[in-house]
Amino acid sequence: MKRLLLIGAALAALAAPLSASAADKLLNASYDVAREVFAAENEAFIAQHPGVTIDQSHGGTSKQARAIVEGLEADVVTFNQVTDIDFLVKNGFVAQDWQTKFPNNASPFYSFPSFLVRAGNPKNVKDWDDLARDDVKVIFPNPKTSGNARYTYLAATAYAKEKFGGDEAKVTEFVTKIFDNVPVFDTGGRAATTTFVEREIGDVIITFEAETKAIAKQYGTDKFQQVVPSVSLLAEFPVAVVDKVAEKHGTQELAKSYLDFLYSPEGQTVAAEFGHRVLDEKVAGKFKDQFPEIRLVKVEDVFGGWPQVSKEHFAEGGVLDTIYGNR
Amino acid sequence: MKRRVLPGLPLSLGITLVYAAIIIVLPLIALVFKAASLGPADYWRIVSSDRAVASYVVTVSCALAATLFNLVFGMALAWVLVRYRFPGRRIVDALVDLPFALPTAVAGISLTTLFAVNGWFGGPLSTLGIKVAYTPLGIMIAMAFTSLPFVVRTVQPVLEELDPALEEAAQTLGGSDLSIFTRVVLPLLTPALLAGVSLSFARSLGEFGAIIFIAGNQPFETEITALLAFIRLEEYDYPASAAIASVMLIAAFVMLAVTNIMQARALRYTVRN
Amino acid sequence: MTKPHSHRRLPRIGDAPIFRRTLLALVLFFVAVIIVAPLTVIGVHAFSKGLPYFAAAIAEPDTRHAIMLTVLTALIAVPINTAFGIAAAWAITKHDFPGRRLLLILIEIPFSVSPIVAGVSYLFVYGLQGLFGPALEAADLKIMFALPGIVLASMFVTAPFVARELIPLMQAQGRDLEEAATSLGASGWRTFLTVTLPNIKWALLYGVVLCNSRVMGEFGAVSVVSGNIRGQTNTLPLHIELLYHDYDAVGSFAAASILATLAIVTLIVKVVLERQGAGRRNRPASLAGNDSLSEVKP
Predict the structure, then answer these.
(1) Sign of the dihedral through C-alpha A281, A286, A291, A294
(2) Least Cα separation, residue B204 to chain C (angstroms)
(3) What would be the CATH architecture of the domain defined by C61-294?
């Protein structure tokens, strides 16, 4: 018995330093394909703030949001979808007015769902229409766990709405066709990349432009090429301080300066280097050649805003559920 | 009549029961509880959905194939280790346990690297038109790897104890090697083989780490049941995850009963002979 | 290892040279493909960009943290499971009580249950939607997505390891020595330490080594409960997966090579301990199926 007590004491002593959180340490819970960009952002931030540690956790953003509610102690979130932060608001982790706390609705940079095909584009995939063809296999992650995939869903829907002029039945049919062409729904964007690149499944992957750039860079433009569709949906990458956790850790200030850094010229440059479109005009101008022009529609204009999207499309029993169905 | 009673029963049994209750029983009860909270109709809908059923088929058929391979290869390996003397025999004997010692994630990435189309084996195989990684064949190989030692280690001792006189008697009666093997040796090995096979099959049913890297994880084709339970968890569909996990739990208990019966038979058999 | 009839060279079945060579070649071929190659490929890829790159990959802070966390988990889980194994073996083999066979089956359950099922089950106990979730939340105790969860899941998976080695051995050794010692007035602890322990030390060590190897390598159960926070709750096996998805093949294989080395060390220690009489030759693959254990003899 004494032995057990001793072990218990040792356990507590050993665990203490691991669970204790200092005010110079942040955990950033982020979306799946943001691994490289935040590794670089963190390095740049730490160069300005020596002694600070930034830990990263990556995964599908809905999975991340739920993990935070389940007890994952993230000080800040850098997500790719407003609804996932709203989920944190609803559960009392993030302040109601988070979108006013940082510029541009708290989104330091943006991107949009874009296409990446195999070299030479053998299936001749040019636009959203081609994704619904019977002979095309499409890869994107599970929209239940990944914000990335929900953008794809919304972008496809937005395109169909324009095409069919609001005929809801036809829109749903079109999007269902695209979903039927997906052989595997991975839980995060990066796993989808692995499926497309390493497992060589699918003819086209739909993911953020930044990730299509990263894949082409990583694996060679002789193997993959980017295809930018005629229209896509603006994907903002909202950030927020997770107040409940930051208060507990005493990291509010550090968390704020970290997120502010993302808006600074240095932070914006890093983001642009990793294929994100940025707000800072000077930085954007410098990288202009690398970002082709594209018409981006907004959630507000097409769907009437995120709350409406949540209610109509993402809620249990919503349009997404009928389309994703029993998969 | 009554034996002298050794001290320490309350303490040791107490520790054992408390620990087993907290660490082993409580979580499993929580799982059953969660699955039961679904209600029969919902439960049935989840565990009999097309995707779930497809995952059972993939898991069970790959486990069967892997076990069959291990039955043949495991027996041959045990035979070689017991009957033949060759340089490096002891090293091979020690290596047999590698699949138990090597973490499954490590096994997963190395098997995937070997059998991917650009890997040492995957390359030559793909020129023959055989794809291993990201197909059911890959799942089978991962399962065969992780459960390889079972058959070898149950057959080996029996083979070592085999009385040469039995074979000699059969030889003097003029039997061919093959007929002596199938009529004399194999029946003696059967209980041990069955015990090893049932352990190997049970392990293959539950394997996760080694498989997810090599499987491709495509629903209806290369998605194993363990992964489906994991995906439902990531979707935060907890009840569905619990339901699917409970199916695996039931399968595990059935296999536990089977392996125990097989093991008991094998032991009785060896004792009697 | 020694066999009384290994020197008689009367041709036994399967000893015909052609058959012998063919079978040996086939078996060794498969051993090379299935066992040796996976081990080799880890080393080759880990060092594919040279030693400095390997060293840098290992020294990377997140990898170092993963190593530390894995060691820490083993430092907690292995001693506790060892204490449990000893207690269970003492209770079961040195005493008679109803339900011994049931207890044996209970102890073996983790061997049959998939690690994923184990992880999911723990989530339903300590997760926010689990049995104790709300209470733990109120008390601000973190189990899931933290070290305790990782340790608990590891303990479940490896609970039977030590007991499995000790029970058959202690059963075979009987109770005479301990009974003699206590009748001479030795206390229970003293009897255990001076009489029982010396007889089981190799088997105990064997069980501890195997238990440790599994704790450090556990993937499925831990991946459910860890939360995969880089530099926080990522154990080494999880870190391997993470690096693998980060396009960092060398880093992934470098981390894997540490665990592969551990596996080889485990195998060597196993062989050494088996020479001391520990290990599989003394126990059946399953405890509860062993009649000699379950039939309580008065």
Answers:
(1) positive
(2) 9
(3) Orthogonal Bundle (1.10)
Helix extents (H) in A77-188: 82-90, 103-106, 128-131, 147-164, 168-180
Complex ipTM: 0.91
pLDDT tens for C130-165 read 889 889 888 888 888 889 999 999 999 999 999 999
Tens digits of residue pLDDT in B64-98? 999 999 999 999 999 999 999 999 999 999 999 99
- Rounded CA-CA distance B151/C115 in Å is 21
Asked whether the beta carbons of A151 and A80 are under 8 A apart, the reply is yes
Query: What pLDDT does residue A198 have?
Result: 81
The answer for C 189-228 residues in CB contact with B (under 8 A) is 191-192, 210, 213, 216-220, 223-224
Rounded Cα distance, B223 and B208, in Å: 11
Residue B172 maps to which CATH number? 1.10.3720.10
**Could you tell me if C91 lies within 8 Å of chain B, comparing CB atoms?**
yes
Q: Does A315 touch chain C (CB under 8 A)?
A: no
User: Domain count of chain B?
Assistant: 1
- Paired tokens of B236: 């935060």
Sorted by where each starts, the structural domains of chain A and their CATH numbers stand as 2-110+236-290 (3.40.190.10), 113-233+294-324 (3.40.190.10)
- The residue segments making up the domain with residue B72 are 40-272
Indicate the burial class of B152 (C-beta count within 10 angstroms; 0-12, 13-18, 19 or more). buried
> Contact, A270 vs A40, CB < 8 A?
yes
DSSP state of C192: I
Q: Which residue carries 């020479």 as its tokens? A: C275
Instruction: List the single best residue of B2, B17, B23 to mutate versus C (max C Cβ within 10 A).
Output: B23
CA distances A162 to A128, A320, C162, Å, are 12, 19, 66
Cβ atoms of B151 and B259 within 8 Å: the answer is no
Q: How far apart are CA A68 and CA A51, in angstroms?
A: 25
Answer yes or no: is B17 within a domain. no
C217 and B3 within 8 Å at the Cβ level: the answer is no
Q: Which of A19, A55, A69 sits opposite C230 (nearest CB)?
A: A55
Q: How confident is the model at residue A13 (pLDDT cuts 50, 70, 90)?
A: very low
C127, closest residue in chain A (CA to CA): A70
Cβ-Cβ contacts under 8 Å, A18 against chain C = 69, 72, 147, 232
Q: Strand, coil or helix: what is A30?
A: strand
What is the Cα–Cα distance from B184 to C233, expressed in whole angstroms? 55
Which tokens sit at B80? 């070689």
Q: Cβ contacts of residue B78 below 8 Å, gap of 6+?
A: B151, B152, B155, B156, B159
Query: Among B11, B83, B160, whose Cβ lies nearest the Cβ of C14?
Result: B83
Pick from C17, C270, A306, C107: nearest CA to B19: C107
Q: Is residue B153 part of a domain?
A: yes
Q: Among candidates C209, C212, C227, C215, which has minimal Cα distance to C278?
A: C209
Asked if C47 reaches chain B (Cβ–Cβ under 8 Å), the answer is: no
C244 and chain B: CB distance < 8 Å anywhere? yes
Mapped onto helix, strand or coil, the DSSP state of residue A230 is: coil
**Encoded tokens for B272:** 């009697």
For CA atoms A284, A285, A290, A292, the dihedral sign is positive
With a CB cutoff of 8 Å and minimum separation 6, the contacts of A73 are: A21, A27, A245, A248, A249, C142, C145
* Residues paired with residue B76 on neighbouring β-strands, in sequence order: none
Interface-testing mutation among A38, A72, A190, with chain C (most C C-beta atoms within 10 A): A72
